Amino acid sequence: xxxxxxxxxxxxxxxxxKLLSRRHMDGIYDILSFMTGQSLFTHQLPDxxxxxKPALLAQHxxxxxxxxxxxxxxASLLAWLTEAERVHGETIxxxxxxxxxxxxxxxxxxxxxxxxxxxxxxxxxxx
Length: 127
Hints:
Elements: E1 4-7, H1 8-15, H2 25-36, H3 45-59, H4 74-88, E2 91-94, H5 105-113
Antiparallel strand pairs: 1-2
Helix pairs in contact: 1-2, 2-3
């Protein structure tokens, strides 16, 4: 199974459930899309994160318990992250999820909120 290197901050954003990625949501989309093997829509991120968190901690048990305290200001949070990168490395290898089932994002949304609330508007192809 192919692995990919991710910033530790991206990995910790999943394992801590705190947005630590320096690339903000782009980091979350990248790691979860890689791990699931599909381009995720926003409403799919919580499910993907629920599956990815234990998988990441199983791959890297040394990250268990690595989490900043609540209520840190931005400077203190950055100092915490810098120290975590010093201890654990700035990047980390990640293996995709083995049990993720590909989900059609529109059907998934219909299942979550009800088909009567989802309107798909066909658009002409882009020029």
